[in-house]
Amino acid sequence: MRSATAGVLAALAAENVTPIIFVELTFDSGPVRLHSGVGTYTVDGYPYGGVGALGKISPVEESTELKAYGLKVELSGTPNDYVVIALSEDCQGRH
Predict the structure, then answer these.
(1) What is the pTM of this model?
(2) Closest CA to 54 of 16, 27, 94, 20
(3) Any long-range contacts for 3-7 (C-beta under 8 Å, 24+ apart)?
(4) Residues 5-18: pLDDT tens digits?
(5) Which of 37, 45, 92, 95 is 20 to 30 A off residue 16, Cα-Cα?
(6) What is each CA distance from 3 to 6, 7, 8, 9, 58, in whole angstroms?
């Protein structure tokens, strides 16, 4: 189990908490970076476009072992140009 930083704990204790989910999807044509909010956020120098909602993300599994777990992302409300990329490129089983 990971521990939260003091900043995260303070944010969670605030009266209003609005979490935003950021995802980077890796395709042969390049990465697609999206978030569940509105507008554009820059994280580590990369812009993430807001789509308002991402759909569903499966629970994240972690352990103390050096092991990779799969993650399932179901997109909804995604702009059509990103849907075309997802349908035309092999994107399952990426690391």
Answers:
(1) 0.62
(2) 20
(3) none
(4) 888 888 888 888 77
(5) 45
(6) 10, 12, 10, 10, 21
